Amino acid sequence: MKKFYFYFILLIFFEKVFSICKEGENFCSLCNPKTKLCEICSKEFLIPDKNGGCEGNKKCKVGFNHCLECNEDSDFCKTCEDRYFQDENGGCSYTYDCEISDQGTCLKCKDNFILIGNELKLCKSINSEDLKHCDKINTINGLCDSCKDGFYLNSGDKKCSSIQNCKQSSFGVCYMCESNYYLNKIEEKCIKQSDDFLHCKQTIDGKKCEICEDNYYFDEEGKCININYCSKSSDFLKCEKCNSGYYLSEYKNSCTKEKNCYIGHRYLGICSQCKTGFYIDFNDGKCKSNEEENDFKYCTIYDNNECISCLHGTFLGKDKKCSLAKNCLESIEGTCIQCIDGYHLDMNNKCTSIENCLKVDYSNFNEACLDCGNNFFYNRTNNLCQKMYDNFENCKMTTYNGNECYQCKNNYYLNKTDNLCYSNKDKEGFYKCSYTDQAGEFCGGCEEGYYYGYLDHKCSLIEGCDISENENRCLKCDTDNDFCLDSKTGKCEYNNEIESQDTKFYYKCNVTNAEGTACEICVDGYSVNKNGLCSDDIHCSEKGEDGLCKKCKNFEDEYLRQCLNAEFGCVETYYDGCEECNDILDSDFCTKCSEGYELDKNNFCIKIDK
Questions:
Q1: Domains of the chain as residue ranges with CATH
Q2: Mean pLDDT, to the nearest integer, of 400-427?
Q3: How many Cα atoms are found within 13 Å in the side-chain-facing hemisphere of 180?
Q4: pTM
């Protein structure tokens, strides 16, 4: 009796342990009916575990699942390819915080992370600030779709706030309310605008408005009123029409008596800033052209017969004229002809204090020389153009310590092992190279106008080329960044858009045929149809005998709307209700609507009011 009881308890234990094996769950595709253990896993890199599921990798192999080096003490990968990271099951994934991956694509994230994205999968923490108090997460864009009880979804940033009618919040504190609501800072509430708080944006104590909406200002009673001299205002709080005798300024938040005005004074009706190409003459308050008279070119404010303010990016000289050069003494039509003492003109008619400098960079607060000319190099330590000597032969610019070369002159590349400049004219590994890697073994960057191949480390004239045959012909394009190899021309073409593309077979194509007339290899999830184009297999629910898609899947998610195109199958559309869209240059140009919608005159699908 005791022996029977022991076996009975043991049977219950085994059933409880192994009853969790279910086909289609825990990556198991076939369960053993006797042992209740998994026999075959659905992914080739997984093996059955003792709990009825699947885990871990098969024996690690170099080159498999983006692995470069295996760990000697385990089956896990030790070193992954560039831009790939080790996951917790010994594989390599394209994203951080991944637990299980298949050939670089993440299948499962770590605990407290969620897998988001359509083609490019990423793991996002469910504890991140923008998902705080979120109840339902959108797995395509990683934003919140609905909030937990007691919280409200902000329409602006898709975050959850405890404040109803809040549009933008940070760490649970609202700082912007929805339209027609104002924020009460003390009570931390969004309150419906009343007559006393019409067009109010924020109040501190709830007694008077503190901040008005854009293009509104306080009147004598502290209420928010519209623009002065404006007779009609738009829904966007912009003035549409001014009172008689006033012009609407291009800034559109004020009315002015001057027709060439850009911004008018909202109280006085006079101009405070003229349009580009005009200056304010304070003698009569008019906006006058600064192109007709050279003395006023680039001038914005004129008073007492001389310019007192210049257009942004130009400078007022001692001759009271505007030029394109700082430290300019005298100019003609904006071109500097003489610099102040201590400065001289470079080849762009800019004033520089750096002797022997031909071209100056003014983008930083301290000017720097971009070109010192032949036989000179730029020393960034002392801000001088110095004569070349042994270690700086063919050097264009030094490092900030001044001891090593930082950039070589054209037709030379910087070898980072000895920091010397060598010719890059020979069509070998360093052709058109600008600098090497730290070991000096291969090129690390290219001259301007050339593109770097991240797989062969060579420079070519072809954008998006990973491996080039020569500077004009590519052998492999960067398919990860939406480039397609045209096998006939050897060029890399963008494959991520249809709009305005003359060669339609590039769309979703990785490699064309030898003639360059059709696609030969499509991106994952797409296949070549009878017309030589790549059609969507992921979102197609029904195909005809000719292999073309006849119907697209319906998705509840608003970010996965698809419409059927006769050539490309299912294509993305931003509007709901569209079932077929056969104008491939505009996927929102609908030809057939779903039930409950009808086409309007602009070929958009409009919901039918019942």
A1: 2-127 (no CATH), 482-538 (no CATH), 546-610 (2.10.220)
A2: 90
A3: 2
A4: 0.43
